[in-house]
Amino acid sequence: xxxxxxxxxxxxxxxxxxxxxxxxxxxxxxxxxxxxxxxxxxxxxxxxxxxxxxxxxxxxxxxxxxxxxxxxxxxxxxxxxxxxxxxxxxxxxxxxxxxxxxxxxxxxxxxxxxxxxxxxxxxxxxxxxxxxxxxxxxxxxxxxxxxxxxxxxxxxxxxxxxxxxxxxxxxxxxxxxxxxxxxxxxxxxxxxxxxxxxxxxxxxxxxxxxxxxxxxxxxxxxxxxxxxxxxxxxxxxxxxxxxxxxxxxxxxxxxxxxxxxxxxxxxxxxxxxxxxxxxxxxxxxxx
Length: 287
Ligand code: GUN
What we know:
With about 290 residues, the chain is an alpha/beta fold. It has 2 domains: about 30-120, Rossmann fold (3-Layer(aba) Sandwich), CATH 3.40.50.10860; about 140-265, Rossmann fold, CATH 3.40.50. It is about 40% helix and about 15% strand. It has a 6-stranded parallel β-sheet with strand order 1-11-8-7-5-6. Strands 3-2-4 form a 3-stranded parallel β-sheet, with helices on both faces. Strand 9 and strand 10 form a beta hairpin.
C-alpha cells in the first residue's frame, strides 16, 4: 500500500477550544459560585513542581479558584491525611488532587482512599475506578478522558475497532482500557511481559502507547491507517520524545498525536472540566 502522511491530532488546538468554552461558562457564574480545585504537592520533585505549576496556571486562566498546598518532604502521612480531611470538608473545594508520585515512605493508596470520591478529580479512588469498569457515573481520569476526546475529534466510529493499549498503569493504561471497552472496542492490553508485542500492536486499528520508553513503538509495528495516540513524555538529551517514533509511525497511521502538543495539553484541560463537573456545573455539548 502507498505510504501516506498521517493527519495530526492537534491536542494543543483542541485543548484551547475546550478551555475557551470552560472559561466562558465560568465567567457567567457569580464570584461566590466558582468551582475550586485544591492541588497538594509534597516534597521537591522537579517534574511534579512543573506539573503543579501548570495546573495552577490553567485554573487561574479559566476562572477556577486554585488552592495549592505545598508541603515539605518531611511531612508525615497523618499530617497529609489531616489536610485531605480539611479539604474534604471545605465547601469552596470541589476537586482535590494529590500530585503523584509521593515521596518515599508515603502510602499512596491510603492517601488516595482518603479523598472523598465526589471530590476525587483524578478519578483514582477505588469507588471511581469501580464505577468506570462497571459503567457507572465515574469521575474519568484526565489523561484517558483527553485521549477519548481526541479520538472522537477524528469523527471515526470506534465501535468494533481493535484497540491496543501498551502499558497497564493505574493512571493511563487501565482506565483508557475501560473507556475503550465501554465504547465497544475489542481490546488488547500489552505490557513488559507480553510475548511478541510487535505482532499484537500490528493488529491495532487504535494504538495507545503509554510505556514511558522513548521511541518504543516504531512504524513497522503500525497497521496501515491506524490511529496512533502517544502518551509518552520522555526527556532525551534535553528534548521531549514520545513513546512512538513519530517519523516512521506517521508514514503508516491515518491520525497521530505529536509530542509535545498531543495528549499533554488535553490532560490539563480535562482536569479543569472534571473540576466543573464535580462542582455540579454542567457543560454544553462540545465544551
Ligand atoms: N502524576 C502524573 N500524572 C498524574 C495525574 O494525572 N494525577 C496526579 N495526581 N499525579 C500525577
